TrEMBL record:
SMART domains the UniProt entry points to: PKS_ER
KW Metal-binding (keyword) present: no
Organism whose genome encodes this protein: Pseudomonas linyingensis
Source organism, top-level taxon: Bacteria
Protein name listed in UniProt: NADPH:quinone reductase
Keywords: NADP, Oxidoreductase
Lineage: Bacteria, Pseudomonadati, Pseudomonadota, Gammaproteobacteria, Pseudomonadales
Amino acid sequence: MAKRIQLSRHGGPEVLEYVDFTPAAPGPREVRVRNQAIGLNFIDIYYRNGLYPLSLPSGLGSEGAGVVEAVGSAVSEFQVGDRVAYCTGPQGSYAELSVLPADVLVPLPAGVSCEQAAAATLKGLTVQYLLRQIGKLQGGETILFHAAAGGVGSLACQWARALGVRLIGTVGSAEKAERAQALGAWATIDYSREDVRARVLELTDGEKCPVVYDSVGKDTWEISLDCVARRGLLVSFGNASGPVTGVNLGILAQKGSLFVTRPTLAGYADTPERLRAMAAELYALVANGTLQVEIGQRHALADAGAAQAAQAGRKTTGSTILLP
């Protein structure tokens, strides 16, 4: 027997139950991992509240890191005792044990701890595809990145600095502004007391930004459009304030022949080879110190509901992990 978080209905944090379960034996191409640390992400909340479909009852969570405990008969790339991480597998990482397809696992190098991997794999791979694949930033650009003090934003600030990119980060307080700038943001905008549109125009000498990254969604959609330069790109990659709906494509013409994309990690890490190449780039930057992984909160697995409530209430900084 092992412990996991399970939900039988959609709703708030109260629907999360800490229960006993018996993990299945690995199939031919599966691996059983004993989780040492588990990542907590906004997408988990979307599954919990029903924004994203989930067949109930179900486990929850998609990110974790730990040690291989058993392998299926057709698995050759991993062995018992290997340290691995994952973030694109089926729901169920909020658990002491997870049985996963071998194709979603990535090897964990010696210079990266399980806690670092659980805190940074999903967020870091997200930043990788945002900055290195979608934006294809070369250095010298000035970009806008919402929620720059959050888990994804804190890594984006550092990675942008390493690329020579000027990142303007929106934040909700003076404390978060100081933190984002310490991590590498070129400038910050405190949306609680500053006009984001006006500040972007000021900071870019009226040019706006060639790329705007928005994980907030409904509350920032129109602001983001107003901050994109002519023929620029708006990357909408999250729904922290709710989904963007009722979009009139004509507004893209009105704002300057803009481009918009709504990407997902699954759309970029869509093969084991691409996933592991992206992870290797991320982990190399973590191991050499270019990316500092800040774990702002650690919660026991049993307290997953409280951890999610704090994240949804924007009361967290950096990454949050659960410990089995």
